[in-house]
Inverse folding.
């Protein structure tokens, strides 16, 4: 799968997750996809939240790894 397709699918998954993050006053923004890693920016109530690592690892990253072949991780910018 080429990088453009992976990026498009990653953006779609993040858009699907956004309403759940918005419910708690936060937001997530796709920044870039590079060499298997999706870079995101957490916004709103996510900034300074004690659960941000859990949200990224067990939420966003887990779903992206399951749904988009080629992704190997998620990093916060």
């Amino acid at each position: 799968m080429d990088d453009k397709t992976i990026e498009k699918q990653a953006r779609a998954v993040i858009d699907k997750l956004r309403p759940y993050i918005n419910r708690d006053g936060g937001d997530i923004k796709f920044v870039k996809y590079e060499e298997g890693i999706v870079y995101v920016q957490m916004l709103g109530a996510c900034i300074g939240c004690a659960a941000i690592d859990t949200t990224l690892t067990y939420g966003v990253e887990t779903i992206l790894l399951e749904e988009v072949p080629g992704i190997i991780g998620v990093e916060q910018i």
